[in-house]
Amino acid sequence: MFNEWLWGGFAIVNFAMILAIYKIFGKPGLFVWIGMSTVVANIQVLKTVELFGITATLGNIIYGTAFLATDILNEKYGKKDAKKAVWLGFFTLIAMTVMMQIALQFTPAESDTVQGSLVTLFSLVPKVALGSLAAYLISQYFDVWIFSKLKSKFPDDKYLWLRNNGSTMISQLLDSAVFCTIAFSGMPLNIWLEIFISTYVIKFIVSFLDTPFFYIAKKMKTTN
């Protein structure tokens, strides 16, 4: 159970840090967080761990915080700022990908000890890279759209949980479907379904766990 307890604590740390950056820096802090989280999530996702009896990727928590950040922006500042944040995250991910591919082409010095590790981390499998970019953009845009729809139909604060959970859980389902379809195309259906289901189960749990932090952010006063 060590991984499960550590994973729970890791989730709390991630959500607490997004509240901290929002409290200190306001709206700009959320923009910075989204850019950072898209990059870190695509590094952490390379590590697989055993959680709740299934094999899962590690990047799902910090990736989920990007959805929390866009929901906070949508709730407190509007749809326009949430969309801007989505594009910022997308550009950050592309910029990191391009820069690291160029960096890998440099011939390392004889004393270098990290080239092999960098190659392992940042060498792209084309379908996985395309799947990650497409899933991020499609699911995040859908999250902004469905959050706005839910907010217009259920504007009272008593429905905060519905706006947050409904938009994130559905958009995370779309994210998993797009990523798995592109990245694992041609894979036997039973294996594809196992990856898809296990990936979404973890994302669903993360979406549920971020609810109290969304409520705190809603009430939080910032200077920006």
From TrEMBL:
UniProt-listed InterPro entries: YhhQ
Any one of the GO CC terms: plasma membrane
Location relative to the cell: Cell membrane
Primary location class: membrane
Top-rank taxon, per record: Bacteria
Keywords, ordered alphabetically: Cell membrane, Membrane, Transmembrane, Transmembrane helix, Transport
Transport recorded as keyword: yes
Chain ranges passing through the membrane: 6-25, 30-46, 52-73, 85-104, 124-148, 169-189, 195-217
GO-annotated molecular function: transmembrane transporter activity
Record's bilayer topology term: Multi-pass membrane protein
Functional summary from the UniProt entry: Involved in the import of queuosine (Q) precursors, required for Q precursor salvage.
Family: Belongs to the vitamin uptake transporter (VUT/ECF) (TC 2.A.88) family. Q precursor transporter subfamily.
Family annotation (HAMAP family): Q_prec_transport
Name of the molecule in the record: Probable queuosine precursor transporter
